[in-house]
Every structure is written in C-alpha cells, then in structure tokens.
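User: Here's a chain of 118 residues. Predict its fold as tokens.
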Amino acid sequence: QVQLVESGGGLVQAGGSLRLSCTASGRIFSSYDMGWFRQAPGKEREFLSAVTWTGRNTYSDSVKGRFTISRDNAKNTVYLQMNSLKPVDTAVYFCAARYKTRYDYDYWGQGTQVTVSS
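Assistant: Prediction complete.
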C-alpha cells in the first residue's frame, strides 16, 4: 500500500502562485510514477502533470508553461509549482501514484483545495 498526503492548497489571487506537495509512505517511492490531477465542481477529473520514476515529465496543454512538477525521492515527495494562476484553475487537486510497470494510477491522496480569486 501507498499512502499519499497532499498539502499546500489555499486561496490565491489571479496571477499568483502556489506550491503543492504530496508526501508518500508505505512503499519504495522511487519505483513509482507520480501524477497530479484536479477536479472542479461539476466536472470530471483532469490530468495535469506526471513525473515518471526515471524523472521524465509530462504536462497537459492546460497547464504547460505555468505548472512545474518535480520530485524529491529522498523526501518521498512530489511537488507541483503553480504559477500565473487563473480562476479556472480553481479545483480540488489530487496526487496519485502508480508502480512503474502499471498503466493505471492505483493510489490517490485525499485532495487539497485550490481557489483562485479574480
């Protein structure tokens, strides 16, 4: 089992920045791909970014150039630096983990609320 705990959400004005953190416990963090997703009210969960166990990053078009994912295996933590935030970025943000040979994300955090005011 992998337990994930997100932190760093909050209220920010448009144009501001936040850094989300997700700390994992329970398994060998370095063998897992890590992803960030979000879900706004009334909408489906949306993929934002991922970092593989080898350190390769991917981003959705909606956040490319504004958000940066990174990981610190020594701290069992993955980060999402979010810059130039917009009101449409308001959502609950989740981190997720999948073992390096898996396709689906099997482990999810409880989510952290990000609210961007105009």
